[in-house]
Amino acid sequence: MSIQTSDEKGRTGAVRAALVRSIKEECGVFGIFNQDGSAAAPDLYYGLSALQHRGQEAAGIAVCDTFGPKGNITWHKEMGLVSEVFHPDTLNALQGNLGIGHVRYSTTGSSTAENAQPLVLKYLKGTLALAHNGNLTNALSLRQELEESGTIFHTTTDSEVIACLIARERTRAACVEDAILQTARKLKGGYALVIMSPRKLIGVRDPLGLKPLCLGKRNGSYVLASESCALSAVGAEFVRDILPGEIVTIRKDEICSDCRLTQEKHAHCIFEYIYFARLDSALDGVSVYDARIRAGKALALSHPADADLVTGVPDSGLAAAMGFAQASGLPFALAFHKNSYVGRTFIKPTQKERESAVHLKLSVLGSVVAGKRLVLIDDSIVRGTTMASLIRMLKQAGAKEVHVRISSPPFLYPCYYGTDVPSNDQLIASSHTANEICARIGADSLGYMRIEDLAKMTGDLPLCKACFDNQYPV
Q1: DSSP conformation class of 214
Q2: How many CB atoms lie within 10 A of CB 307?
Q3: b/e for 381-415, b at 16 or more Cβ within 10 A?
Q4: What is the pLDDT of residues 261-276, one digit of tens each?
């Protein structure tokens, strides 16, 4: 099935990309093998919808009928939300019981239709579809190596680098799993992959465990997903997290695990727990909801405030605000109404447009905040413009004081593993002290979570927190 790339769709995607706030996750991946022969496309639709928070620029599905002609993969992908890209007629045309899907934000590669996933390749040994979450730190050198050997690229993503490496390795490997193993040995960075060959569904997780991936089961169906919330969306039970460095192959009536890439050193992305993942997900044995509650409690102990009530910025700040309220003994209340029909978080090029975007997404509940001293919890401050707008809105609605508490340490360094933390010159904390930021955003006080308290969120789970401490695991 061809990709629809009309000018109108391209403009829509470009507008959405321009609006997205600078801190964003790379993508969400989903795969399902219905071994009873039932259609995979509806399940992929619901699974991707549950992962929509991980990517709002583009969506795509590729399917294969394991009972039909070998190698016949059909797909559809476009710029837009899952509900915009797929309609009943579109899903009905995607006939097959094995499939993978993808929702995308761009970090490597521009926000254009040709960079939408899954990527589908036809090569010497057959066909392959791939969906990728993450970012490679050695993508440019790998791409140059492939180009020098004659590879022609059709996208600007590092995902295509991975797909082309697998295709090249497959020409001398006994099976696609061996080709994937040899490819993964060359990759550096964070990645979670779901790969479909005509008879197999394969999941791959980077050896550090930077990017999440889990396995689920529903009767005779097996599911791979970025988050456990997507398993629930299709009625599948959580089986386990894919191990860092593990390659899992799902065939008819068989699951195989290859752990030759596993290693002792792990570094799970802390921002999955702070912001990215959905509240009802559990990643590597840690409930996201519980982690954010614990973050709020730690914040209340390290940065208490003399206030009347605690509130949070929807959505990712709410659970931490509840934790802060529990630990401080202050009441919790909702201070904002969120417009659910506006994207997750927005940014515009000019100050006026940024303020308009914030007002479009959130409105203040005046009767809650009038005459009150508030503790306002959010997950991060990047440039500071959004927080300044929120504080101004609260004070215009009658709030006496706004004490800001952030459930992460200050962003000081860029991320190279698939979290789109911008360069240092765009991070307000890299050039301003906490007191200076407090004055710039108009807060009455400002407190960040301490780096040493991050472990309280996730227990003994080894973490990557390089955007806070400059200690990169790769």
Answers
A1: E
A2: 21
A3: bbbbbbbbbbbebbbebebebbbbbbbbbbbbbbb
A4: 999 999 999 999 999 9
Compute the distance between CA of residue 405 and CA of residue 298 in angstroms, rounded to an integer.
11
Active site members = 27
Domain ranges of the chain: 7-266, 290-461
- Could you report how far apart the first and last alpha carbons of the chain are, in Å? 38
The yes or no reply on domain 290-461 and CATH 3.40.50.2020 is: yes
Query: Under 8 Å CB-to-CB from 111, ≥6 apart: which residues?
Result: 13, 14, 16, 17, 57, 58, 79
pTM of this prediction? 0.89
Q: What whole-number distance in Å separates Cα of residue 293 and Cα of residue 291?
A: 5
Q: Are both 7-266 and 290-461 of the same fold?
A: no
- For the stretch 89-147, pLDDT in tens is 999 999 999 999 999 976 544 556 788 999 999 988 889 999 999 999 999 999 999 99
Q: Shortest CA distance to 184 belongs to which of 258, 255, 125?
A: 258
Asked: is 7-266 a CATH 3.60.20.10 domain? The reply is yes
Residues 235 and 230: their CA atoms lie apart, in Å, by 9
